[in-house]
Amino acid sequence: MNAPLFNLPLLLLPTAESAGTTGTAATGASQWGILIVMPLIILVFYFLVMRPQNKKQKEAKKMLESLRKGDRVVTIGGLRGTVLSVKEDAVVLLVDEKTNTKLEYSKNAVSSVLKREEEPSTQPATTEPTKE
Predict the structure, then answer these.
(1) May I ask the CATH class of domain 68-115?
(2) Is the pLDDT reported for residue 32 higher than 90?
């Protein structure tokens, strides 16, 4: 029988043919098959769904913790602005420089950082000696 691979769990279930005289042997074999297939399904589910979601949550948390003044951000509603100040659970965004419009949003409303403000370098600027 050339059954597709996605029918494998169905092949392990007891059928009417196996319910005859050797019903207990066939049922026992199908129970072992289910015990083997179920952990495999859970493992695939973990690697395809849960693990990538956890990675995204960690990246989002790291991004929110690293917000600082001067960053250009986008909120979940699509609003773009520049971070003026960062509070414990909120950020103040400058939306329009002409009218000096400021809005306060929850940190969780920030979906991404467009442009990160460059950190000032801690190394002193070196100047080359002039040739005279």
Answers:
(1) mainly beta
(2) no
